[in-house]
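Our preliminary data section would be incomplete without showing what the modeling component actually yields. Below, a chain of 74 amino acids is followed by its predicted structure, encoded as tokens that our downstream tools consume directly.
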Amino acid sequence: MLEAGFGIGILPAIALPVAGHPTLIAVRLVKPDLARTIGVFHLRDRSFSPAASALLEVVRSVLQNEDGDPLSRA
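Predicted structure:
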């Protein structure tokens, strides 16, 4: 709908189109008053796969970094 010109939308950075999209642009929200709970579920008797462990490490790293603005890396 956005690409067709019907308004605006708020998306997490991971859902943004690739850089240089012909019709859509991303504008960072300045000091948005938003919060999101992130949870990870797993079986008690199983460890994470190497891929899942790497993903969790990236998520932790971004969340711990005060300057972790995903839009600045797009």
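Residues 13-66 form one domain. DSSP finds one helix and no strands in the chain. Preliminary results of this kind motivate Aim 1 of the renewal.
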